[in-house]
Structure formats: C-alpha cells, structure tokens
Amino acid sequence: MSAVAPGAITLENVTLCHRDRPAVHHLSGRFEPGSLTAIVGPNGAGKSTLLAGLMGRIAPSTGRIRLPADGAGHIAYLPQQADIDRGFPVSVADVVMLGHWRRLGAWRAGGAAQRAQALDALAAVGLAGMQRRVIGELSAGQFQRVLFARLLLQDAPVILLDEPFNAVDERTTADLLALLHRWHREGRTVVAVLHDLAMVRAHFPRTLLLAREPIAWGATAEVLLPAHLQRARLQAEHWEAQAPWCAVPDQPAATMRAA
Amino acid sequence: MNLLHRRHLLLGALALPAFVQAQDAPLQVVASFSLLADMVAQVGGPAVQVHALVGPDADAHAFTPAPADAQRLAKAGLIVVNGLGFEGWIDRLVKASGSKAPVLVASSGITLRRVAGHTDPHAWQSLVAAQRYVENIRAALVAALGTTRPAQAAAIDARAKAYTAQLAALDTSVRARLAAIPPAQRRIVTSHDAFGYLADAWGLEMRAAQGWTSAGEPSAADVARLIRQLKAQQARALFVENISDPRLVERIAREAGASVGGTLYSDALSPPGTRADSYLKLMTHNADTLLAALAPAPALAPAAAPTAAPTADNSRR
Amino acid sequence: MTVYDALVQPFVEFGFMRRALVACLALGLSCGPVGTLLVLRRMSLAGDAMAHALLPGAAVAFLLVGLSLPAMSLGAFIAALAVAALAGGVARFTAQREDASLAGFYLIALAAGVMLISLRGNSVDLMRVLFGSILAVDDAALLLVAGVASASLLVLALVWRPLLVECFDPNFLRAVGGRGALHHQLFLVLLVANLVAGFQALGTLMAVGLLMLPAIAARCWAHGVGRLSVVAFGIATACGWGGLLLSYHFGLPSGPAIVLLAGGVYLVSLAVGPRDSLRARFITAHRHRTA
Hints:
The complex is a heterotrimer of chains A (259), B (317) and C (291). Chain A has 9 helices and 10 strands. With 259 residues, chain A is of the alpha/beta class. In chain A, the strands form 2 sheets. Chain A has a 6-stranded mixed β-sheet, with helices on both faces. Chain A starts with 8 loop residues before the first strand and ends with a strand. Chain B is elongated. Residues 210-215 and 303-317 of chain B have low confidence and may be disordered. Chain B has 317 residues and is an alpha/beta fold. In chain B, 46% of the residues lie in helices and 14% in strands. In chain B, helix 3 packs across helix 4. By secondary structure, chain C is mainly alpha-helical. Chain C has one domain: ABC transporter involved in vitamin B12 uptake, BtuC, CATH 1.10.3470.10. Chain C contains 15 helices and no strands. Chain C has helices at residues 3-7, 9-13, 15-40, 46-53, 55-65, 69-93, 98-120, 126-130, 139-168, 170-175, 180-202, 204-218, 225-250, 254-272, 278-282. In chain C, helix 12 runs parallel beside helix 14 and helix 13 crosses helix 14 (254-272). Chain C is globular and about 65 Å long. Chain C starts with a helix and ends in a 9-residue tail after the last helix. Chains in contact: A-C, B-C. Chain B binds chain C through residues 54-55, 57-59, 62-64, 66, 214, 216-224, 227, 243-245, 247-248, 250-252, 254-255, and chain C through 10, 13-17, 20, 118, 121-125, 128, 132-133, 135-138, 244, 247-257.
C-alpha cells in the first residue's frame, strides 16, 4: 500500500436532481488532495446523492464535477450495507478478493500472492481466520469490516464511504476509524458521510455541512458552529410542494476527467 | 282473360326463375373431417356443397372450433359425423350452434372393433366398412333433398353405386396382391394404432408404438418391449403417419433394424393437389405403400414402392 | 433380478436408453450452474415463462418456412431472447421489477403466438414438432444439447465472476467498470439457448424440471455457488438415470417419472437436508463450538 499523489475533486456549481427536485443544489467547492473530510447534515440533505454523483452514477443537472486524471476506476466506494445481498452464498474470502479487481480483471484468477494480501487485509481489520465463513453468517459489524478489507485491497487514491459506522459496535468503530487515519496518513483523499457529530469533531479535520445547499465547507471547528447547524436544520425541514423553478444560471453539465 | 289474370301470369313468369333457382341451390353439408367430406362430395356431386370442420392434414383430436364453424353448422342442411367417439367435441358444438339440421352418423351399421375396452373409431380404414359409409351417406342425402328433386336423387343413387363399385374394385385388387405374401411376413409397426380395421380386413399384423389416441406419453418399458418384439419377430417395416411424432418411430426402427417404410395416412386427407387428397387416393396410397414394404423382394427401401396409379379415381368435384 | 440387471443392464441393451441418459447428463452439466444462478437471482419462474415466450417465434418460422425443425428452433430462440431482453430492459430503465416485466412480455408473446397459429387456419400441433421427448432423442438433438452445454460451460467459465458480483453487489461492479448489463444479457442468452435445446431434446416439462428442481434442492445440501452447481448437476444426472429406470421397470411415462423423482429429492432435501431444511430448523443440534 504505497502513498499516492491524487488529484483534487472539484465541484463547480453542481446540482444533482431526482426528477425535478434537487437533492444537491448548486454546490461548489473542492476536496483537497489527501484530505479527510466528513459530510454531515440532516436526513434528506443529499449526502448519499452527492457521493453517487462523485462516483459518476448520477449526472449533474448543472455544473461540473472534476475528478482526478486517473479516471473513475480509482475511486473506491463503500456502499450502505443494505445494497448488498447478504443471502448470497459467497465466502468472506471471495468478497475480499474482489478488491483485486482492477489488477486481475474479470477472469484472471488470483495467485498465492494476491491471496496472501487478502489474508493480510482481513487481519488488518481484525477478522483473521474468518476467510471461509459465509457472509450470511456474519454480524453487521463483521461484514462492515469485510467491506473495509476489500477497500484496503483496492488501494485507491480516493475513498468514499457512505455511513460506514451505521449499526456497528464501538469496538469496530474504533478499529475502522484507525484505518481511516491510516489512509489519511498515506495521502489518500478520504470522504465519509457521517451522522455522529462528536466523532466528526474528534477525528475529521475538514467537514462539509450540507442541507441540500452547502451551509459551510472547511475546517471542522469553523463549520460545526451552532448557527450553521441551526440553518441546516431549518433548510432541510423546508419542503415546498410548489417550489418555484430555479433561476440560477446553469452551466453545461458534464463530469470531466482531466483536471 | 281480364287484367287480373294477366298480372298473375306476369308475376308468375317473374317468380319462376327465382323458384327454379331456389330448387337448384346445392344442399349445404358440413362434415366433421376431410375424409368424410370427400365421400359426401363424391356421392352428392353438384347437388351438395360440403365443408369439413377438420381440414386436410389436421388432427381431429386437437381441433378447437372457431365461431365460423358454428355459423356453418347453423346454416347446414345436413351434418355428417363419424361417431364412435372420434369427435369428442361435436355434440357440444352442434348444440351451441343451434342447428336444426339432421345429424348422420356415418359409421352406423358397421361391425365394430374393440381395443382395450374402447371402441376403435377409425372404421373408414376398412374398404368394406367404407362401402357401408357410402350407403348411409346416400340415404341421408336423398332424405335431406326430399321428394322435391327426384332427378337429383336419382343422380345421387347412380353416383353412390359407381363409387361403391370403385371401392369394391380396389379392395379386391389389394387382396389379390396380398395373397402373394405369406401371412407370417405381414408384420407392420406404425406409430398410431388407427389401422386396426385395415389390418383386420386385409389380414395384416399391426403393432403400435403408442396408444390409439394422440395423447399419452410412452414409457421406456413400452419402447423397450416394442424393440424386443421387432427384433424377435423380425418385423419388416415401420410406418410413420402424418399426424404424430415421427421421431419416436424412427428411433425404434433404427434400433430394431427395421426400415421406416414411408407415410401412411390415417385420420386426414393430404392437402389438395397432393397424393392423398381424396379417400380413394388415400386408401390406394396406403395399400401400395404397405405392399411395397412387405414385398417378398429383398429391397425394402421406400424407393421401391411402385407409384400409386389410382385405378378408377373419381375426379374431385 | 441382480443389482446389475436393475440398474445397469437396460442401458447396455438399448441404445435409446443410453442416448436418453447422455442427453440428461449433457443438459445437467449446463443446467447445474444456470439453474443455480436463476434461483439465486430470484428468477425461478423464468424457465416456465420462456417456454411460453418462444411460441410466436416458432409460429412465424412455421408460416415462413413450413414445418422445418431448424427454422422453428431458430425462431423460437429469437423470440424467447427478445422477450428476455425486453423484460430486462424495462426492469433496468423503469421502476418495474423484473418479474413483472417478464410476466407482461411473455403473456404478450404467448397470445401473439396462439393468434398467429390460428390465423393460419391449421390446427397442426406445432409444439409437438418443436418439443421432443426423451425417448426419441436422435443424433441431431443430442448434438444440439451437447453443443449448447459445452458452449455454456465455456462462456460461464469466462464470465463467472462478473455474473456473480452483478447478482449480489451490482454497485461494486459498476464502480470498477465491469459491464453488468452486458453480462446479464449474456446470461439470458445462455438460459434461452439451454432451454430451447432442452425443449427440443426432452420437451418442456423435462427441460424446465431438470433446470430448476435440482438447483432448488441443492440449497439444502451445499453452500457456495460452485458447490451448489456441482450438487445440482449430480442431482439432475441421478434423477435422469433413476427416472429412466423407473420408466423402464414399471412402465411409467418417462418425462414425468424423471421430474417427479427430482421433486421427490427436493421434498426429502427440504425435510432432512443439512442446511436450510425443516430438520435444521426444528431439530436443533446438540453440539456447538466454543466460538
């Protein structure tokens, strides 16, 4: 796991919509290379949608998202657990080995070296010896660790995490936070959607407070002020049935690759 | 003569052609399937117009009626069916159409054949029974036309007599040719046990690979038994008929070392313009094919079958 | 009767028994993995839907070319593929679920096929021509089944991983740029090819029966997709062999005998299999590990 030199992720006047309702409304800003950023905000604030936009799964209705020049394959993504079918009969080892996908492709089998790396990753997340277990038998916390192990193997310069500590016990949370810090030390750009403000204050140097529109983006201490939090709450509770059409000037929408 | 009379005469003169036309309109007959329809057409000639519910090359067991069929039945002057359970759907159809036409069961009066507790309905495969069919049809047509058209009734009688003579002649010639083949060699296997009457009439030994209805799946035991029989008895030929699964028959033949002897027609005529498009041609073809396969000559290949030259084939009207 | 006479001799004596067994084996080879994937993707009723969906293709081929088996098979294949593709497309691009869209399209196809056939005015039973029977497997049908099975195994070996990932974590596949939609369509092509070959050689009941029942029963015995496929293949072959013997010794119709035997295996598996069974649920194990 070498230290890499990632590019920045830049958002220019980005709006991400579901039908004609904006989930993210005119967001501009920059995730600095190697930064560790938390995205917080009330429910319905558009946080997961923003991650989806960064992944390229939703095209912006306005504005542009500029990703690092290496391309979308070098973004590793931790989804919410609900999106994965845990009833599927695969083993922990199978899931972790998927982290090698970019190196092995769709059909080359992993060699002994790759398998050893997978076991190391499992050990790093505290699941040594569990490689034969079927994922359906794991608890939520254990499965989350498995997904982290996969992320470890992916060795990507940009890592996005969608509510990584939901339904996970304290011990697991502590261990996984340690991993996040390790990535941060290795110079990767890490962005995580979180709910626990205490954790954000303790562990994340930068924060984006999002309530559909950006309330504040910067150093955590400056962002998580009571006034900002109040505004965020009011903003998200404001749901108009007949909201007027947005008059802010658009720019042609595109997700650009070259910085 | 006053004006009244003259007007009557004029009206009468005008009405006469219409009246005559009405008398000349052919009797509408609906037959259940193509074979019967052909027989009715041969006997009735220009006095009838026949339609078959189950057309050439079609399977009477799988027939699903259309509204047009019910309409035809309602407008018919005579309905001809085979009976003996061959047309399971006919009673309901006639009732549903509300037709008042008389229904002739063409097979009345023949000697029945029973197979495994059922009556075998394929009686037309015997030329002797067929002559009885013709007689029944003749009587029904004459009755339906009533006494109003004696000339046509006489013509029908004459046609029936000629047709019966043709059937009898074919029967005699086939028996003569069969006499040359010793009984021990008259062993046939066909995929559809519709030829029971034919076998009985002409003294052939026929075995079936499947039961005599179109439904029913065979078991491995049945197939194995048949192959063993074929091998043990050294049956000469295997026949495939034009409305069932030929692949099974081919498989059995191949394994038993018998030849697949060609096509025998059982329940339906072939389409117009082909080799079995009338009852007489159908029986002639069946006879020729059987004789060719059973011929004492070593060549068993279907190509050795002599081309059927229909002897006194009535031209189809 | 010795054991040999009961179990082996019929296959030695009769060629049609051997062919039937080989056809079952070949189909079982590809149906093992394909059936397993169908069950895991919750598409267990797709096989039956496909049996009806291919009717208009066969009808059109019949109208154009006549009663030609290759033409009708090709038409059937294309029609079933079209239904599968349309159903998949609708499910992907609208809010409709895949089972609803499949039901919609196969019903349309079935009705269209019936209408086409009746317009022709001929009540020739098309499906008799298209659907074979296991006792009448000829060289052409055997070659078709074996060919399709080999091709399926080859293709499955190549796309096994993306196919699986697309089942249980499609987001990940999309994230790493694997083409989920393409692999899904490829799987559908394999499914339809196996079904059409199976219908031709063995008839609908047997083809769908051998596809689904062993795969469903296997879940009570194994875990892990690879092992499930192997167990499904084993069950399919054993039922083919056993069903043929039942048909041979007791005079039962062969197709239903094989499928009912597979059904029996399923019921027994449900009752007493080591996992996911009634036994596992109601009869608790008396031993457990320390951790």
